[in-house]
C-alpha cells in the first residue's frame, strides 16, 4: 500500500469515467494547485480561473496520463501552461508595455502577497504552535507523513508500532489540528 | 473519518477506496473534511519550503577549511532549496520561472524530489568536487575581462577576487557536465555560477556575489 498505489486507483477510476473519483481528486488537489497558481499569477481570481480550466483539461486529457510522473506533477504542468498562455495573451494585449517578457515573468512569481495567500502567515504560525503542542506520538506520525512524505509502513517501522496505529495517530492529529483551526476561525 | 484520512494518503485497499468514494459522494461534510486535509497539507508543505531541514552532505566532508565548511553547508542547502535554481538563457539574462515552479512543485513530493535531486546529481558532484579540492585554482587561466568591475585579485589567494565587500572564487576545468546554459544556485548569502565557455571548458565562480553584480561578468564571458 502506498500513496502511489492510491493514486493509481484514483486514475483508473477517472479514466473509467467515474465522476465521483474525479470530484474527489479535485477536492484533494485544488488547494495545492490554487496555491501554486496564486504564486504564479499573484491574483486569487486569476488563479481560481486557471485551476478550473486546469481540472477541465485534466478530465479531458486523463487518458494521456501514463503515470510516468506523480499525478499532481502532471496536473501542475497543465496548470502552468495555461497560466503562461494567459499571461502571454494578456501581455500581447498590452503591447505598449515595454518590459520584456522575461522580466515580467520574473516579477510575477517572486512573492505571494498576504492578500492572496490561502492562509495568512500569522495563522500559519498559530497552527504550527498548536502542532508543536500535540502529543509526541501524534506529532511524529503526522510530521513524518506530511513533511517527509513517508508511507504508513515506513512510519510504522520508524515508530515501532503497527500500521493501524500509525493510521489512527495521523487521523487523530489531523482531527485535532482541524478542530483547532475551526475554533480559531482559520478555516 | 479515519478511513477518509487514510484514503487521502493513498493508504487504503481497493475495497476501502471504493467505499470511501461512496462516502464522499454522499456527504458534504466528508467532502469538506477532505478539502481541509488538503488545505492542511498545503500549509505544511509551504512551511517545509520556507525552512531548510535537510543537510544531506554536511557531515560527509571534514570541516577543516572554514570557507569550505561554509560552502559545503551551502551546497547541502542547495539540495533542499533547489527551488531557487535558475537558468540563464543563452542570450538573455532572464529567469526560467517555469523551471523554478516545476522544481518547487517537485519538492512537494518525496518521489519527485528524489528524481529531481538525481537529475541534478552530476551538478552536485561537480560542486562537491570543487568545494572539496584543496588545490589552488588555476588563476592563470582567468581572463581579466571576466572579473567584475571593482574586483581585484587577492595577494594571499590568487583564485580569490574581492571588491572589499564581496568575494569571488574561480575554478576552470573541462565541461564534463555538458552544460549549454549558465546555471546558478543561491544558498544563504552564497552564489555558485556554472558558466560553460566557448572552448568546451566550464567556469565555476562562487562566493557572496549576487546576480546583479555577476551579470556583467556572465555577459562578458559569453
Structure description:
The complex is a heterodimer of chains A (187) and B (222). Chain A has 187 residues and is mainly alpha-helical. Chain A has nine helices and no strands. Chain A folds into two domains: 3-116, RNA polymerase sigma factor, region 2, helix turn helix motif (Rna Polymerase Sigma Factor, Chain: A); 121-183, Winged helix-like DNA-binding domain superfamily/Winged helix DNA-binding domain (Arc Repressor Mutant, subunit A, Orthogonal Bundle). Chain A has helices at residues 3-15, 19-41, 44-61, 71-93, 101-108, 121-132, 136-146, 152-159, 163-183. Chain A starts with a helix and ends with a helix. Chain B folds into two domains: 2-49, no CATH class; 65-221, no CATH class. Chain B is built from eight helices and seven strands; from the N terminus they run H-H-H-H-E-H-H-H-E-E-E-E-E-E-H. In chain B, a hairpin with a 4-residue loop joins strand 3 (160-162) and strand 4. In chain B, helix 2 packs across helix 3 and helix 4 (66-80) runs antiparallel to helix 7. The longest helix of chain B is centred in the N-terminal third of the chain and has 22 residues, at 28-49. Chain B is elongated, with a radius of gyration of 23 Å. The N and C termini of chain B lie far apart (59 Å). The model of chain B is unreliable at 51-119 (pLDDT under 50). Chains A and B meet through helix 1, helix 2, helix 4, helix 5 and helix 6 of A and helix 1, helix 2, helix 3, helix 5 and helix 6 of B.
Proportion of residues in helical segments of chain B: 40-55%
**Mind describing the biggest β-sheet of chain B?**
7 strands, antiparallel
Count of discrete domains of chain B: 2
Instruction: Write out the CATH superfamily name of the largest domain in chain A.
Output: RNA polymerase sigma factor, region 2, helix turn helix motif
Kindly report the greatest chain-chain contact and the residue count on each side.
Answer: A-B, 63 and 53 residues
Amino acid at each position: 500500500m502506498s500513496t502511489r498505489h492510491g493514486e493509481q486507483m484514483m486514475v483508473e477510476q477517472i479514466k473509467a469515467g467515474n465522476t465521483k473519483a474525479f470530484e474527489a481528486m479535485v477536492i484533494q488537489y485544488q488547494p495545492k494547485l490554487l496555491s501554486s497558481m496564486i504564486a504564479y499569477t499573484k491574483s486569487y481570481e486569476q488563479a481560481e480561473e486557471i485551476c478550473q480550466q486546469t481540472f477541465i483539461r485534466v478530465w479531458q486529457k486523463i487518458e494521456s496520463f501514463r503515470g510516468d510522473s506523480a499525478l499532481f506533477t502532471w496536473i501542475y504542468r497543465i496548470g502552468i501552461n495555461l497560466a503562461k498562455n494567459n499571461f502571454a495573451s494578456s501581455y500581447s494585449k498590452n503591447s505598449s508595455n515595454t518590459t520584456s517578457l522575461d522580466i515580467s515573468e520574473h516579477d510575477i512569481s517572486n512573492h505571494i502577497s498576504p492578500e492572496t495567500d490561502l492562509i495568512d502567515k500569522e495563522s500559519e504560525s498559530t497552527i504550527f504552535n498548536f502542532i508543536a503542542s500535540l502529543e509526541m506520538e501524534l506529532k511524529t506520525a503526522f510530521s513524518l507523513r506530511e513533511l517527509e512524505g513517508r508511507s504508513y509502513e515506513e512510519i510504522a517501522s520508524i515508530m515501532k508500532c503497527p500500521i493501524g496505529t500509525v493510521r489512527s495517530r495521523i487521523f487523530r492529529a489531523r482531527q485535532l489540528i482541524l478542530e483547532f483551526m475551526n475554533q480559531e476561525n482559520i478555516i | 473519518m479515519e478511513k477518509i484520512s487514510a484514503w487521502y494518503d493513498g493508504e487504503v485497499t481497493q475495497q476501502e477506496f471504493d467505499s470511501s468514494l461512496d462516502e464522499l459522494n454522499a456527504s458534504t461534510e466528508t467532502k469538506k473534511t477532505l478539502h481541509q486535509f488538503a488545505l492542511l497539507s498545503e500549509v505544511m508543505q509551504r512551511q517545509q519550503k520556507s525552512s531548510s531541514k535537510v543537510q544531506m552532505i554536511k557531515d560527509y566532508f571534514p570541516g577543516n577549511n572554514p570557507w569550505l565548511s561554509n560552502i559545503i553547508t551551502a551546497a547541502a542547502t542547495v539540495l533542499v532549496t533547489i527551488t531557487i535554481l535558475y537558468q540563464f538563457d543563452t542570450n538573455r539574462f532572464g529567469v526560467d520561472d517555469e523551471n523554478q515552479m516545476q522544481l518547487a512543485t517537485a519538492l512537494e513530493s518525496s518521489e519527485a524530489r528524489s528524481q529531481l535531486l538525481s537529475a541534478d546529481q552530476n551538478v552536485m558532484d561537480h560542486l562537491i568536487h570543487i568545494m572539496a579540492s584543496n588545490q589552488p585554482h588555476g588563476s592563470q587561466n582567468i581572463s581579466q575581462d571576466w572579473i567584475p568591475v571593482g574586483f581585484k585579485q587577492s595577494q594571499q589567494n590568487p583564485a580569490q577576487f574581492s571588491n572589499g565587500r564581496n568575494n569571488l572564487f574561480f575554478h576552470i576545468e573541462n565541461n564534463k557536465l555538458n552544460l549549454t546554459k549558465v546555471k546558478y544556485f543561491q544558498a544563504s548569502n552564497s552564489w555558485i555560477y556554472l558558466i560553460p565557455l566557448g572552448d568546451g571548458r566550464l567556469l565555476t565562480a562562487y562566493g557572496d556575489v549576487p546576480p546583479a553584480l555577476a551579470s556583467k561578468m556572465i555577459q562578458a564571458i559569453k
